[in-house]
Design brief:
Elements (H helix, E strand, L loop, with lengths): L1 H20 L15 H9 L9 H34 L2 H19 L11 E5 L17 H10 L2 H5 L5 E3 L12 H5 L7 E2 L5 E3 L2 H6 L17 E3 L13 H4 L9 E6 L11 E4 L7 E4 L1
Parallel strand pairs: 1-3
Antiparallel strand pairs: 1-8, 2-8, 3-4, 5-6, 6-7
Length: about 290
């Protein structure tokens, strides 16, 4: 009786388990009496508790592999394109080419020809100096070098952008005021003007021949009536009074230097007399 009751309650449960759930026994192997040798072989080598891969697993692996391949190809393409662009137009090469092109265009449009040519000569006064003008040349004790150096040292030379300066002074028979153009490069065709812009003479020949277009005072060369060394007579010849070639400042009436004055337009701008060599007077200068 007890056996019958056992079978009555337990048997249906076992059947349901087998039919619906397989009873959770994945390790049972192929059904008894199965004719599938591959299934038997697979189950024989399977580790208990694991599941054999099926077709869905293979498909997932294949999809994942394809995705990785596509990503790698995309990255390679991106890298290649970037490398091509970088190689074709590297920053340093582009900048160098652009700079070279710009410089060449600028040079062609405005070639470097140095400072512009002067259009006028500026008349002005140097600092006062006694008759020993040669002593101001500390290298060779040369009167011309010393005189021109005094003119070049004037502040107005740099202010007006002059690059050359000469003293309007006769020193020796071969270095007279009439020879400044041929001996010392003074431009002969440019007008002479004072610091305030007033024209004193239209050119070098007009300056020497006179009369002047304006007094040196009116042109701003001297603030008041002033005497200055010239070493030149009214006829443009070398005066006897030139402080021995502008090499002495002896305090004696025997030694003297010829002077001009700033308030006249006639020959007095060159010759109004002479002064002792120990007196300090300015030079009349021109720069361009």
């Amino acid at each position: 009786m007890r056996a019958a009751r056992f079978l009555t309650f337990i048997l249906p449960s076992l059947v349901a388990c087998v039919l619906l759930l397989g009873c959770g026994d994945d390790d049972a192997g192929p059904p008894s009496g199965s004719n599938d040798p591959d299934a038997a072989a697979s189950d024989a080598g399977r580790i208990p508790g694991t599941r054999l891969p099926d077709a869905s697993d293979d498909a997932a692996v294949a999809i994942d592999a394809q995705a990785q391949t596509d990503a790698a190809q995309t990255g390679a393409q991106d890298g290649s394109a970037s490398d091509v662009v970088d190689a074709a137009t590297p920053d340093a090469a582009t900048d160098a080419t652009t700079d070279a092109t710009t410089d060449a265009a600028t040079d062609a449009a405005s070639p470097d020809t140095g400072p512009p040519a002067p259009t006028e000569l500026l008349l002005f006064a140097s600092a006062p100096v006694d008759g020993d003008i040669a002593a101001t040349d500390t290298v060779g004790s040369d009167a011309r070098t010393g005189a021109d150096g005094l003119c070049a040292a004037a502040t107005i030379v740099a202010e007006r952008g002059c690059t050359e300066a000469r003293a309007l002074l006769s020193i020796a028979s071969g270095d007279r005021i009439t020879q400044l153009s041929t001996n010392h490069g003074l431009p002969a065709t440019l007008p002479f003007k004072g610091p305030n812009g007033t024209q004193v003479a239209a050119d070098y020949a007009s300056l020497l021949a006179g009369p002047l277009d304006s007094t040196l005072e009116a042109a701003g060369v001297f603030a008041t009536t002033t005497d200055y060394w010239t070493g030149t007579k009214a006829d443009l010849s070398l005066a006897l009074e030139h402080c021995t070639g502008w090499t002495t400042n002896t305090s004696s009436d025997i030694y003297a230097g010829r002077i001009g004055r700033s308030d006249g337009t006639d020959s007095t701008w060159l010759d109004v007399g002479f002064s002792r060599c120990d007196f300090a007077l300015p030079l009349l200068c021109a720069c361009w």
